[in-house]
Amino acid sequence: MTDPHIDEALRALLPRLRRFALWLARDPNAADDLVQSTVERALSRWSTRREAESLRAWLFAILYRIYLDGKRRAGFYARILGSLAQEEEPTWPSAERVAVAHSTLAAFASLPVEQRSLLLWVTVEGMSYQEVADVLQVPIGTVMSRLSRARRALRQLGEGHVPESPALRLLK
Amino acid sequence: MTQTPPNEHDIHAYVDGHLDGPARGEVERYLARHPEREAEVLAWRQDAQQLRALLAGDMAPSATLDPALVRARKRHRRVARLAMAAALVLCLAVGGVAGWAARGMGAGDSQPMADAMEAYRLLAVDHGLGMDITTGNEGDLRSWVAGRVDPDVHLPDLADAGFRPMGGRLFATSQGPAAMLLYDDGNGHTVSFYVRPPGPVRHMLPRGQREQDGLLADYWSRDGHNYAVVALANAAGRLAAQRVVGRSI
To answer: pTM score, two decimals?
Structure first.
């Protein structure tokens, strides 16, 4: 694959990457940083990619990994600074704030990172369970049970059993 | 008609619409017999549809994230990093050369025979120190220096140049003992003859002369010793030093 072809393939998936990044980071700037790091890493590791592998799943895996690493580091520093509380505080722009008004979205936004990712990959992106298992590097059976948990959690939160969460505090 | 519930995979596949054929029928039949399970699964499906609808909107494209741009920025950064690395190497090289050139600086005399001038100032100008030996006899002075500094020290014969010895004093340097001998020309002009082992930085000195703070120093090296003749930097001092140096080298 030549450089322009690679660029074209990546460009086509940018909107999906941005959407995933936004729902991971819940901050537009952080999301774009995530996507940029993902594209950079994808470009430098392109040769290590297996042709059979879905490009989308590969990119999601990269982005997810970068996000988790960043979060770990942030958590580490936050613990050092003794301010763990502010770590999860999302900073929505006004447009997204409106969108969050929808209870399902609000519930979705307040799910743990992995459940959010799982639901987005499976329901919105339509990724196969095997692809998700590859991204998370767990057996497919584990994906199934985690998906059940995620769906129950979303249901529970969406039905109003909503714990006080930063995402919802913004709506008042 | 089986009573075994469908496995998790099939339930989710059913929710996500991936299940077709007999497996789908089986799940549907099972759910029909288990209303509470059916309610949950249908709610899941509704949630999934809602999420899909709510999140489906594409985000506005961001120009800064275009792969071609990212690639260009990456290349640019690599060039910048290379430039930085080159600059670092250059800095190290410059620092190394400068450090090598400046080695020993601050370890003592940055100017040749500064200690000789300091010694002259202490003894002849400020009279801050006494002599170790006070003698007008050149032979006594010669053996005193030979015993305390080195037998190889060349002392000038200054008697016929009109100078008579006044005495001498030992100084300690980190390379060994140094001695300063004072001579007087009978007209109140004091000239010092200073000898010491070569310093750590300036091993052997080229023949030279310099003036600093009203003092004049003539210096040279010979047979493993550094010598200096120090006098006041005035006309009389210059003349006196010239005469001493002429006899010493």
So the answer is: 0.54
Top-confidence residue, A59 or B113: A59
- Of A7, A120, A155, nearest to B55 by CB-CB distance is A120
Instruction: Name the amino acid, one letter, at A121.
Output: W
> What would the pLDDT profile of A20-56 be if each residue is shown by its tens digit?
998 888 888 888 889 999 999 999 898 888 877 789 9
Three-state SS at A150: helix
B9 to chain A: which residues are within 8 Å by CB? 129, 140, 144
One-letter identity of residue B230? V
B58 Cβ under 8 Å from any chain A Cβ: yes
Report CA-CA distances (Å) from A14 to B23, B61, B64, B113, B145: 35, 8, 11, 74, 89
Note the ipTM here: 0.76
Contact B236, B188 (CB under 8 A): no
Give average pLDDT by consecutive 10-residue segment, chain B, 249 residues. 79 91 92 93 91 76 80 84 84 82 59 83 72 84 86 80 84 84 83 84 77 88 87 85 80
Chain mean position to CA B47: 66
Which of A44, A108, A147 shows the shortest C-beta gap to B51? Answer: A108
End-to-end alpha carbon distance in chain B: 125
Question: What distance in Å separates residue A85's CA from the closest CA in chain B?
Answer: 28
Number of CB atoms found within 10 A of residue B189's CB: 19
State the count of interchain CB pairs (< 8 A) between A and B: 98
DSSP assignments along B108-132, one per residue: S-SSTTHHHHHHHIIIIIS--S--S
Chain A contact set for B51 (CB, 8 A): 104-105, 108, 119-120, 123-124
CA B16 to CA A115: how far, in whole Å?
16
- pLDDT score of B106: 52
